[in-house]
Design goal:
The complex is a heterotrimer of chains A (987), B (169) and C (89). With 169 residues, chain B is an alpha+beta fold. Chain B is built from 4 helices and 10 strands. Chain B is globular, with a radius of gyration of 16 Å. The radius of gyration of chain C is 14 Å and the shape is globular. The longest helix of chain C has 9 residues. Classes of the chains: A alpha+beta (987), B alpha+beta (169), C mainly beta (89). The complex binds zinc ion. Zinc ion (ZN) binds next to loops of chain C.
Chain lengths: 987, 169, 89
């Protein structure tokens, strides 16, 4: 056993020794240790280098507030977690930890030169220095700064661990399982409330884990704790979550908790959940988050071996570790005396207690003197000495040798979650800290987190809060108290933030971001008055610890410098997360195949079997093309296009949005919504519909069929299905609630098989039953009901290719059989499956627009050549008034045209900008841009669609398409390249 | 450890209709369907292999064994007569899954944000909601059994998601 | 995540809802009679209050109904929700 481990006591298991390594060196600890306590037990204090100056840093705290001791814990190449606080890392056998932010080694760090050059790195250094030239940022400044100032590295391999998520609901959520939290949970559960009690530590107990000398209800505090915890664990109305941090408080009592399930286990089972994210919705919340001891600000207060007094006490009482052999306590409060006395009793020499208060006196001072400890009242701290470990401290001009400096600036309530909940804080002059005043949520704070200190007071406060929370949920409970005896007066006087110390040497306020007094002074000198601005300028409180040990000191120092009361300087906003949360926990199961739903059509497997290459269209997988052996996309698409133009192609159009619009007022409803006339559409007929937003811009389009007097089948774009339905519901429910019409999404009900090409009729005819396919019976833009290949079908004669075309709609589960039947029937006619890429080429050859490709949310129908669709006699439709605005009718708007490149082989880039003269230097004001561009196999040259200012008046002109290295000449044409008369459609 | 749960599974095809209409038409449709359609919000009625689920104030989902599309449509349209309504066959639009067993509720709580406690979500309650990133209709058909309806193309996602949740404990 | 009382279904988590902007805007019955300015006002000009705001929500992944809510924009507290067509309380 090491020299720093006590012979007995604490909550570690002395029978279970655990091996671990730190920076490659092997050490031994005990079960129940944290990495920090195990390192201290081995006399290791130097655990990291600071962020900016690369100064040697040690362990400052014993908990989540630790700013210095950030380590990387490595299990394997993929399981390497940076930025863990050694004070929270539970030791397991075989643990491998490494320090961060040092190169090449922790003992000798080249970045240390930053400390020597520190006059060059004052507050705002980055803002002032790296201003010019702008290009140097990407090349020089940023890479260098990032390498020099890294905070550990994330592993590059995918995270192999499993993360789970859970929604939970309860009457009362209690955050923090110290005495106040345990009493609150007990009281709420006794009243009948369903309770969740969470705590970030490995076991509940909070401050009781540090060994309170008191008795509760006649039991030693430790025994009482064990009983209370066992009773809560056995209560079916209580869910206890250990190792669970409440990191975020969201509106309406919705809290985010992260439970760390396996990080403390040496060899977690392969399938086990590493972390679980709990989303808790609580009717009432009790915050019992405790308080955080604050450092003192004096030169060299960051040297390894300088530690918060309460932390040193915690290491001693909970872990059985003496953090040094000879200590000096520097304090501004009574609260730290207990630590000195306990360490003294455990054999640590207390060289002196330097009490900064001029009139230090009272029971604690007397107790210390009785123990033979020298107490220096009204002491002034000059600073510390030492290299990688403190070797002495200068008090009022006298240097005292020591290897441990305990400091205490008093306690600050942990108001982070309260503040996140938008509760209002108020400054307490007596305690010199912020405490919760007005709640914004159904929440109450209890115990130290609202400035109520001491065991008896915390228990009483917690019990009262738990009961009040249960009562607020409608439960009736009775009050009960706790009999506490033998409590020391330790926390009765919570302490105070001391006045600033002279800024000679480096006196750190924010340890993690390396912010010193001098930086704050500079900010005040430079005119910063609000703490929010000082924070951004100096980065104080902006590190991953969110200023848990720095905000209050910074505030006090700035206020003093400005000569203002603290509340006038204000306080910074606490934001979630309380402590960092892994992306894994936030993502949960949403990764890999479950990242987002992958939607496939009824015929998907057929396309897979045919070797289709797929593309993502929203959540859908759509077959893009069907390559044959040796074909690239270009060759496959050319072949597919020619097959449709010359014979017949088959296409899976199932993803098209479909909406059944049904009811006596269905026609009137669509008439009001779409630009077209739908009142006059005959049963069995289809019409191409254009939908505008109320601002007049094209929102969606699709074919609408009238299946019966009161029933329409509306199709939308694949991507527009949900938003069109939402827009329709909006008008139906809120503008025209008097119309008897209802909307039902039928997108997924139907498998849609498009059969397109001059031979399409010959393919389908033998499969059709009860449908006359003769052009006179089923002309272009007509629909019929019947059976296709035995399946009940709606057969639309529609075309998005410009060829004779049909779209067979059958119930989804019949899709594969009908597809196979169509392919079999079409074999003799050369039927060819084609994908979305071919569909795009074919429609572009015909100048059919795609909403979202030709349009960009600023195009009105006339801009894209759709003015013809507008029902001229209609007095109103959605968007009509908007397209009549003067600004929309002015000349020079972008209009849809075609482009033919002078070199027929050049396929323009979609999005390319157009100029009316060649060689205009950038930045130029373009006359338009290319929206669609393809090689057309049937035409033997490239084609493009473009939106060009005053485009229709430019037909016949030559424009210049800006490409890398020059301009490409292109002639403006009408936007229809193939069969402009439309004869093929009506075949 | 989670209690044992029956593996989430896909249910066989079914006949499904969305009926949207006012109260008079609903009463008439109930007579044609052989099952009074629920009027209370978020309630389902079921008997004899048929079920009617409240999805919205004027929207009901009607469930029946597979293959009854034409029969049911005929019966319902006849019962509805000239009353304004919308009856749409959605048999193939959706797929159904069952999550059953003592831990079914806990399993759903992995991705469903609703409070599924007995007092809040009793047997016979149904609602549209979300599970993971999918929209579902969740119906507590029995004390330890939930019937889920989801879009046809979301079924494999929902099933995969439930299986992952089972692993996730 | 807010907890929103749907007037039909009761309290539900925000994830089931979609937000639809300011409430009680009525589409002019005869838009053609409006000046360009008046129409633009209807299209684009919205309140942006600090505090009480009447707004539209839809229980999209629930009963599908639009409804109105009075929400405090500073505290997110929802004072009341009510059905479409009902006057603001
Ligand atoms: Zn609702």
């Amino acid at each position: 056993m090491s020299a720093f481990r006590t012979a007995s006591g604490g909550r570690v298991d002395r029978a279970r020794r655990l091996r671990f390594t730190f920076d490659g060196r092997a050490w031994e600890g005990l079960a129940g240790d944290t990495l920090a306590s195990a390192l201290l037990a081995n006399g290791v204090h130097l655990v990291g280098r600071s962020f900016k100056y690369h100064r040697p840093r040690g362990i400052l705290t014993a908990g989540a507030e630790e700013p210095n001791a950030l380590v990387t814990v490595r299990r394997d190449a993929a399981r390497e977690t940076p930025n863990l606080k050694a004070t929270q890392v539970e030791l397991y056998d075989g643990l491998v930890a490494e320090s961060q932010n040092r190169w090449p080694s922790l003992g000798f760090d080249v970045g240390r030169v930053n400390d020597l050059l520190s006059p060059l790195f004052p507050a705002g250094f980055y803002y002032k220095t790296f201003m010019w030239p702008r290009s140097a940022w990407a090349r020089l400044y940023e890479p260098v700064i990032r390498r020099a100032a890294g905070l550990g590295r994330a592993p590059e391999a995918p995270d192999p661990d499993r993360y789970a998520q859970r929604h939970a609901h309860c009457d009362v959520l209690v955050v923090g399982a110290g005495p106040a939290g345990i009493a609150a949970a007990r009281a709420a559960a006794d009243a009948g409330a369903c309770v969740i009690l969470c705590d970030e530590q490995s076991e509940p107990g909070g401050a009781l884990l540090d060994g309170a000398p008191a008795q509760i209800d006649g039991l030693a505090a430790g025994d009482w704790l064990a009983r209370a915890v066992a009773a809560l664990a056995a209560d079916p109305k209580v869910r206890m979550l250990a190792r669970t941090t409440a990191f975020g408080y969201f509106p309406h009592n919705h809290l985010g908790l992260v439970e760390r399930c396996t990080d403390h286990i040496a060899a977690p089972a392969a399938d086990s959940v590493r972390e679980r994210l709990w989303q808790v919705r609580a009717r009432e919340v009790v915050l019992a988050a405790g308080a955080i001891e604050q450092p003192l600000v004096f030169p060299g207060n960051d040297r390894p071996g300088v530690m918060l007094a309460g932390a040193a006490r915690s290491y001693l009482k909970r872990y059985g570790v003496r953090a040094g052999t000879r200590a000096v306590l520097v304090t501004a409060t009574d609260a730290a005396y207990q630590a000195a006395l306990d360490l003294h009793a455990a054999g640590v020499a207390i060289a002196a207690i330097a009490d900064l208060r001029p009139a230090a006196a009272g029971v604690w001072v007397e107790a210390a003197r009785r123990a033979g400890i020298e107490v220096l009242a009204g002491a002034a701290i000059g600073g510390t000495r030492g290299g990688r470990r403190v070797s002495g401290v200068t008090i009022s001009g006298r240097t005292i040798a020591c290897d441990l400096v305990l400091m205490s600036g008093g306690y600050a309530p942990s108001v982070h979650l309260f503040s996140q909940s938008r509760g209002r804080l108020t400054w307490s002059d007596s305690m010199r800290c912020f405490v919760p005043s007005q709640s914004a949520e159904r929440e109450r704070s209890a115990g130290a987190c609202r400035g109520v200190y001491g065991l008896a007071a915390a228990l009483a406060d917690g019990a009262a809060a738990g009961l009040a929370a249960a009562r607020a949920c409608g439960f009736t409970g009775i009050e009960r108290g706790y009999a506490v005896a033998g409590e020391s007066a330790t926390h009765q006087a919570p302490g105070a933030t001391p006045p600033a110390v002279a800024d000679r040497g480096k006196a750190f306020v924010d340890f993690q971001n390396d912010v010193t007094i001098r930086d704050l002074v500079l900010a005040a000198q430079e005119g910063f008055r609000s703490i929010e601005h000082v924070k951004r300028y100096t980065t104080v409180g902006m590190a991953t610890d969110q200023g848990k040990t720095s905000n209050l000191n910074a505030l006090g120092l700035v206020a003093a410098r400005l000569g203002k009361p603290v509340p006038d300087v204000g306080h910074t906003t606490f934001r979630m997360p309380y402590t960092p949360v892994t992306f894994g926990a936030l993502a949960g199961a949403a990764r890999g195949e479950l990242f987002d739903p992958v939607r496939t059509t009824p015929m998907h497997e057929v396309a897979v079997a045919r070797g289709a290459v797929f593309e993502d269209v929203g959540q859908w997988k759509r077959a893009r093309y069907f390559p044959r052996a040796g074909e690239d996309m270009h060759a496959a698409v050319a072949r597919e296009c020619l097959a449709v133009r010359n014979a017949c192609g088959v296409f899976d159009a199932s993803t098209l949005g479909k909406i059944a619009v049904v009811g006596p007022d269905a026609a009137e409803f669509l008439n009001r919504l779409y630009v077209n006339d739908f009142a006059g559409l005959g049963v069995g007929r289809c019409r191409y519909g254009v939908l505008l937003r109320e601002d007049g811009f094209v929102y969606d389009d699709g074919v609408i069929a009238r299946l019966a007097a009161d029933r329409f089948h509306v199709t939308t774009t694949t991507g527009g299905a949900a938003r069109v339905l939402a827009m329709m519901e909006d008008y139906r429910q809120t503008e025209w609630p008097g119309l008897a019409v209802w909307l039902t999404s039928t997108t997924e009900q139907w498998a849609v098989i498009a059969v397109q090409g001059p031979l399409a009729r010959r393919v389908i005819e033998p499969l059709a039953a009860g449908i006359d396919l003769a052009p006179s019976a089923l002309p272009h833009m007509a629909v019929a009901h019947g059976r296709i290949a035995g399946a009940p079908a709606m057969l639309f004669r529609v075309s998005f290719t410009g060829e004779l075309g049909y779209e067979i709609n059958v119930p989804a589960a019949r899709g594969v059989a009908v597809w196979e039947a169509v392919c079999a029937a079409g074999r003799a006619h050369g039927i060819t499956p084609y994908g979305t890429e071919t569909m795009h080429v074919l429609r572009a050859e015909k100048g059919y627009i795609i909403v979202g490709q030709e349009t960009d949310g600023t195009a009105v129908p006339d801009d894209v050549g759709l003015a013809w669709a507008i029902g001229r006699k209609k007095p109103d439709f959605v968007g009509k008034r908007s397209i009549e605005r003067a600004g929309i009718r002015r000349a020079g708007r972008k209009q849809l045209v075609g482009l033919r490149t002078r070199d027929p082989k050049i396929v323009l880039e979609e999005g390319a900008q157009l100029a009316d003269r060649p060689g205009i230097p950038a930045p130029m004001k373009p006359v338009g841009h290319v929206t669609s561009s393809y090689a057309s196999a049937v035409l033997g040259h490239s084609i493009a669609l473009a939106m060009i200012a005053g485009g229709r008046a430019r037909i016949g002109q030559t424009l210049f398409v800006r490409v890398p290295g020059g301009d490409v000449e292109a002639k403006v044409t009408i936007p229809v390249f193939y069969d402009p008369e439309g004869a093929r459609l009506h075949a | 450890m989670p209690e044992p749960v029956e593996a989430p599974r896909l249910l066989p095809p079914a006949t499904r209709f969305i009926l949207q209409c006012g109260k008079d038409a609903r009463d008439a449709a109930g007579r044609g369907f052989g099952l009074a359609l629920p009027e209370a919000a978020c309630r389902a009625e079921s008997a004899g292999g048929r079920a009617a689920l409240w999805l919205g104030p004027d929207e009901r989902l009607l469930l029946a064994p597979a293959g009854l599309e034409d029969v049911l449509a005929g019966e319902l349209e006849a019962a509805l007569g000239g009353l304004p309504h919308s009856l749409v066959d959605v048999s193939h639009r959706q797929a159904a899954l069952a999550v059953a067993g003592p831990a079914a509720r806990e399993l759903l709580s992995h991705g469903c944000p609703l409070d599924l406690d007995d007092a809040v979500f009793p047997v016979g309650m149904c609602t549209r909601t979300v599970l993971g990133r999918a929209e579902v209709v969740l119906w507590r058909s029995r004390p330890e059994e939930y019937h889920l309806e989801t879009g046809r193309s979301f079924a494999s996602y929902v099933l995969g998601w439930l299986r992952e949740a089972e692993q996730g404990g | 995540m807010l907890l929103i009382p749907c007037p039909y279904c009761g309290e539900r988590p925000e994830i089931e809802f979609s937000y639809s902007g300011q409430a009680h805007l009525v589409r002019p019955p005869r838009p053609a009679e409006l000046s360009d300015e008046a129409w633009s006002e209807y299209l684009y000009v919205r309140d942006n209050p600090r505090g009480r705001h009447a707004e539209r929500w839809r229980h999209l992944r629930g009963c599908g109904r639009f409804f109105n809510a009075i929400r405090d924009t500073t505290t997110d507290r929802i004072a009341v929700t009510y059905r479409m067509g009902e006057p603001p309380p």
